[in-house]
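Input/output pair, single chain:
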Amino acid sequence: MTDFFSPKEVATAIGVSESSLKRWVDKGLIPAEKTGGGHRRMSLDAVLKFLREQGRALSEPQAIGLPAESGRRPPSNDSDHHEFLRFLLCGDEPSARRIVMDAFLNGYSVAKIFDSIILPGFSEIGNLWHCGTLEVYQERRACEICSRVIHELRRAVGSGPPDGPVAIGGTLDGDPYTIASSMSEVVLRECGWRALSLGNMLPFNTLMKAVEIDRPRLMWLSVTSIRSPEQFVANFNVLFDTATSLGCVLVVGGQALTADIRPLLRYTTYCDNFRHLEAFSKTIIPREN
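Output:
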């Protein structure tokens, strides 16, 4: 799926004439790039940023690859996560995508979407699976839908400004769960970071190499599983010392960092949710300017 669209496609999506759309581009309201042949192309994230800032609705979202009816229904704090869960349970991916994109187009930050819609629904899927209420295929299907919804939000926020500070992260060796780390990447990108998830099952020594070579300003780690607590603590604290010596803050979160583990660790900050990560990351960026 392309992330760049022609003036005609964007005009159709918004419901305006192509000439009006081109005037907005000429005024700098929507950044556009030119192809080798001189044709204008607009990125999805630039178009969506314009819509959110201007309070405009989409007329035909499908023209730019979004679910039908996206953005037309205002989000509801009371019901959206229940609806999202229902769609996960029945495998209705288009409706799950629409719930999330409605919230985004109506001004929700991705951190708020993750905390108030996706995580509550996904957590309930996990509870139902552990209780034996769900079949394995239903849990796996819900994971796949969540991963694709997160990918769509990644497209919606873009890759971050080219001059933004660098952030990298992932999960540690023995920890195969990637969804929380992927969400961290998207939150940081929306906050102005050039964030990149390194994936899962990363040994401590390769993370230290990543800090030494890429020199990020921030590293995040999502910890949902720990093999050996004693070895984990020792290696983690060496990683922290390496990171801080190179000017990198270490941000952590995850259910495996229990009350008996956390006091043994050295880290810059611990985040209970994604709005904590959003708020903390914004305190770092001004120091880069």
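The domain at 4-64 is CATH 1.10.1660.10 (Multidrug-efflux Transporter Regulator; Chain: A; Domain 2). The longest strand covers residues 166-170.
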